[in-house]
Design goal:
With 330 residues, the protein is α+β, with helices and mostly antiparallel strands. It is 29% helix and 27% strand. The strands form three sheets. Strands 7-6-3-4-5-11 form a six-stranded mixed sheet, with helices on one face. A five-stranded antiparallel sheet has the order 8-9-2-1-10, sandwiched between helices. A two-stranded antiparallel sheet has the order 12-13.
Length: 330
């Protein structure tokens, strides 16, 4: 419920330990928060709002170690990683949920994935040449798209289920882009704050509970308090302290935690399927052009798979059924 015109409402937050102005002006020492990489789900019971918090240190270090990115691209990729993990806290994911941003600008693709088991991986691709000014989503170009995809395995021999939401990118930041996505695709009021630096990525998400109005101005109150949160405070503060500081008047209830870690889903089986999709002639040509051994490197984790001429021949001689294989490692 909106406030009457000309009337300002003040929603107090508990600032005994950390003020908003301090968060904006300083660079807090994040070593004080040594909690493990995890996702935390919570409720603001009085306001009828659900939320998710994510903090990643080691997982982010593993992703960053796989490729060298310009600082601006790494920050955007880190925010995408945080968002992907956040979204698995709001929807049922038995398989995997991925976020992909693609365009034809200097930054071509941002891709991040989180599985139901809590494993993450991510990658960014850029145009060739001297790349400058990739600090915002405008570097994806004017026709960029945002896709969120959920893939779950089929139950009892049924086909896997796949859902994808696709919207154009008109926002300047990833947080704003995802808020636009949920407003357009899910029609649910949503707030996000995403933050990333060299050592850590963090995210906080609030979403109105479907069909639950909460108290009369619960969403307005929570959203106003959310606006007082800056990225440095989000990055530096343990989740329970942060939630109490912001929403102590709305009955914060923690619903559970899930550990998160880096892992890649590439495997010999997936690589073999990709080679089969190329066809026997092209697979054998790859062997001949590389001194008798085909090499396939996973873009996500850097693992290299090698196939001799005999192993490539065995792939095609042992095929008993035809099935559609992926065109690249996924």
């Amino acid at each position: 419920m909106l406030s009457p015109v000309g009337r300002l409402r003040h929603y107090p937050r508990c600032n005994a330990f950390f003020t908003t102005s301090h968060a904006e002006e300083s660079d807090p020492d994040m070593t004080a928060d040594t909690s493990p990489d995890q996702l935390t789900r919570f409720l603001l019971e009085e306001a009828g709002i659900r939320g998710v918090h994510v903090r990643l240190d080691e997982t982010w270090a593993q992703i960053r170690s796989r490729a060298e990115y310009p600082a601006d691209v790494a920050a955007l990729l880190g925010e995408a990683v945080a968002a992907t993990a956040l979204f698995t806290g709001h929807v049922k994911v038995d398989g995997r949920l991925s976020v992909q941003l693609r365009g034809d600008g200097a930054l071509r693709t941002l891709f991040a994935e989180c599985t139901g088991a809590g494993t993450l991986r991510a990658i960014a691709t850029m145009a060739e040449g001297d790349i400058e000014d990739m600090h915002s989503l405008s570097s994806l170009g004017p026709d960029a798209l945002l896709a969120i995809t959920i893939e779950n395995p089929g139950a009892r021999n049924q086909e896997p289920s796949r859902y994808q939401g696709l919207v154009g990118l008109d926002a300047d930041t990833l947080s704003e882009a995802f808020e636009d996505y949920f407003r357009q695709s899910e029609q649910l009021p949503t707030r996000l704050l995403l933050a990333a630096n060299h050592d850590r990525v963090s995210g906080l998400m609030l979403q109105k509970l479907p069909g639950d109005e909460g108290d009369l101005d619960g969403w307005e109150r929570a959203s106003a308090l959310f606006d007082t949160l800056a990225a440095p405070e989000l990055m530096a503060t343990p989740v329970e302290t942060l939630l109490h500081r912001l929403f102590h008047e709305d009955g914060v209830r923690l619903l559970g935690e899930k550990p998160l870690k880096f892992a890649c889903s590439c495997s010999c089986e997936r690589v073999s399927a990709m080679l089969e999709s190329l066809g026997e002639d092209e697979a054998r040509a790859a062997v001949e052009h590389n001194a008798g051994q085909a090499e396939i490197r996973c873009e996500f984790c850097g693992e290299t798979y090698r196939y001799s001429a005999e192993e490539v021949g065995a792939l095609f001689s042992q095929r008993t059924t035809e099935w559609k294989a992926p065109e690249r490692l996924q």
